Amino acid sequence: MQKKKTSTRKTAHNNIGYSGISIGRWFLKLSLLAIYVIFVYQLWLLFHVLYWKHNNPQSTAFMERQLEILRADHAGATLHHQWIPYQHISDEIKRAVVAAEDSQFLQHSGFDYDAIWNAFQKNLAQGGITAGGSTISQQLAKNLFLSDNKSFLRKAQEAMITVMLEQVMSKQRILEIYLNVIEWGNGVFGVEAAAQHYFSRSATTLAPHQAALLAAMIPRPRYYDDNRDSLHLLKKRDILLKRAHSAKIP
């Protein structure tokens, strides 16, 4: 009788052992599957970056999301967007945007660590997110592929895409795409559409004060589209007018 009890215990113990091994195998398989999916997604992103090195993106994640929002209110809504080659974009807007968003654009390799540290200290002092240290390359990575949600995973993916952009594209190409795809108002994307929307002229002929105003609008384009006489906007425009002449552009 004692032998039967011992045998039963051994069987139960073996079953538990087999169950643990089975769970471990499933966990390993799921982990490998997750790694594979992440790897394939990174390849998908890299393919687009390589393609866009010589081909112009017709849309971005930000454009598609904004179009969905607009069509929720008006089914026939469309975006205002027109591509313009880098050489046809006024140097005034190029310098103003670099001065406003990324003064070290030509010097860094995608990340301005001094700006990131300064933004961190400012946010810490303010007790919230009031400043950002994103470069033009980081902003482009987010606009092309990602959402505007703030999370560690999204920032990590943004960093990986930024590295891809910097390794594959020239600074000129990065700035060209950036100027052509960023949001500049309610349904307005890209510098040519912005120049037409606000000044009824091409981005080729933007004057310094017009370029400075557009550059000042980038952090809150929809708000400033509805509040074009904002004192904060006009003050920032005047500051950029003084800084823009020293900005280095590709």
> What fraction, in percent, of the residue positions are helical?
55-70%
Please report the distance between the alpha carbons of the first and last residues: 88 Å
Summing up helix and strand content along with how strands pair, one would put the structural category as mainly alpha
Order of helices and strands: HHEHHHHHEEHHHH
Unreliable stretches covering 5 or more consecutive residues:
1-5
Order of neighbouring strands in the sheet with most strands: 1-3-2
Under CATH, the homologous superfamily of the largest domain reads Biosynthetic peptidoglycan transglycosylase-like
**How many runs of DSSP E, i.e. beta strands?**
3
Largest sheet data: 3 strands, mixed
> Roughly how many Å is the radius of gyration?
25 Å
Shape-level CATH architecture of the largest domain: Orthogonal Bundle
State the CATH class of the largest domain.
Mainly Alpha
How many DSSP H or I helices? Answer: 11
How would the global form be characterised? Answer: globular
Strand content is under 5%
Chain-averaged pLDDT: 88
How would you describe this protein?
By secondary structure, the chain is mainly alpha-helical. The protein has 2 domains: 1-52; 56-246, Orthogonal Bundle (Penicillin binding protein transpeptidase fold). 66% of the residues lie in helices and 3% in strands. The protein has 11 helices and 3 strands. The protein has helices at residues 2-52, 61-73, 91-101, 113-126, 136-145, 152-168, 171-181, 191-199, 208-217, 221-226, 231-243, and strands spanning 80-81, 183-185, 188-189. Strands 1-3-2 form a 3-stranded mixed beta sheet. α5 packs across α6. The longest helix has 51 residues, at 2-52. The chain is globular and about 70 Å long.
